[in-house]
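Request: Not sure, any thoughts?
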Amino acid sequence: MPIEFAYTLIVLLIITSILLTLLILLHRGKGGGMSSMFGGGVTSSLAGSSVAEKNLDRYTVLVGIIWFACIVGLGFWLKTTLA
């Protein structure tokens, strides 16, 4: 496989890593964890609707699947290149 394939996967991996970090940080804490310890346990009605939370969950799972596919793709590329 050409080296451009690996570069494309690396760029996609960096982008999805940043997006995944941001999406995870956007999730609201469920309480009882570290977030409630630092004042995150206060609930507000302006935090968002359940539709927004479901969409955020979907986007997080989608970006996570793309991130995982990049990791697996790079692993296969390295296996075929070094073999």
In short: The chain has a mean pLDDT of 83. Helices lie at 3-26, 34-37, 50-82.
